[in-house]
Specification:
The complex is a heterodimer. Chain A is mostly beta strands. Chain A has no helices and nine strands. In chain A, the strands form two sheets. In chain A, strands 1, 3, 4, 7, 8 and 9 form a six-stranded mixed beta sheet that branches. Chain A has a three-stranded antiparallel beta sheet with strand order 2-6-5, with no helix packed on it. The termini of chain A are far apart. Classes of the chains: A mainly beta, B mainly beta. The interface between A and B is medium-sized, with 27 and 23 residues.
């Protein structure tokens, strides 16, 4: 069971948009619409921001959006704010009642 | 709002068994999936497994031979046991939960660092 592939880091200026990719395979990302994304500030627990590829939990700003094409899922953050600086983790259902995470992406707001 | 709190030893010797408990407050353990996830220092998250309130469990295949997750509904807590630990098991361990499905994690504990060292 291989981890999903995310870029180690991305960056953007306040007000800009950034996209974080999450690449898997047909056995996980490509095979199911169960991709979720988590935001993690330093020393804190992860927080769910996107689930089922595109859905946002209550309270998550609509600046955060998710999508998927083939075996790659993406998280887009528009109108970047300083508080968005954090690590972002993707997660996908991988069949047989198990889940696989990506390695995490550090977002820097310049 | 469900709140979760991990507890257990912060230091475990190699070859011994790591044991952690997650105490649930603000909601009943029923109808939720209760999971464990870990994060080695400076690395990404790794799924360990879950227990449903009925007692059904599923584990990450890579850890399955060493993991046991159990629940005590009367005490509103669930537990993780990981046997034969090595330094590679050093990580922050999180408990998490979701109502109604196991493909995402709505609520998280604050995490507890477990170091494996003699």
């Amino acid at each position: 069971q291989s981890a999903l592939t995310q870029p180690r880091s991305v960056s953007g200026s306040p007000g800009q948009s950034v996209t974080i990719s999450c690449t898997g395979a047909s056995r996980d990302v490509g095979g199911y619409n169960y991709v979720s994304w988590y935001q993690q500030h330093p020393g804190k627990a992860p927080k769910l921001i996107i689930y089922d590829v595109t859905k946002r939990p209550s309270g998550v700003p609509d600046r955060f959006s998710g999508s998927k094409s083939g075996n790659t899922a993406s998280l887009t953050i528009s109108g970047l704010q300083a508080e968005d600086e954090a690590d972002y983790h993707c997660c996908s259902y991988a069949g047989s009642y198990t889940l696989v995470f990506g390695g995490g992406t550090k977002l820097t707001v310049l | 709002q469900v709140q979760l709190q991990e507890s257990g030893p912060g230091l475990v010797k190699p070859s011994e068994t790591l044991s952690l408990t997650c105490t649930v407050s603000g909601g009943s353990i029923s109808s939720y999936y209760w999971s464990w996830i870990r994060q080695p220092p400076g690395k990404g998250l790794e799924y360990i497994g879950y227990i449903y309130y009925t007692g059904s469990t599923k584990y990450n295949p890579s850890l399955k031979s060493r993991v046991t997750i159990s629940a005590d509904t009367s005490e509103n807590h669930f537990s993780l046991k990981l046997s034969s630990v090595t330094a590679a098991d050093t990580a922050v361990y999180y408990c998490a939960s979701t109502y109604g499905d196991y493909v995402k994690f709505d609520y998280w504990g604050q995490g507890t660092l477990v170091t494996v060292s003699s």
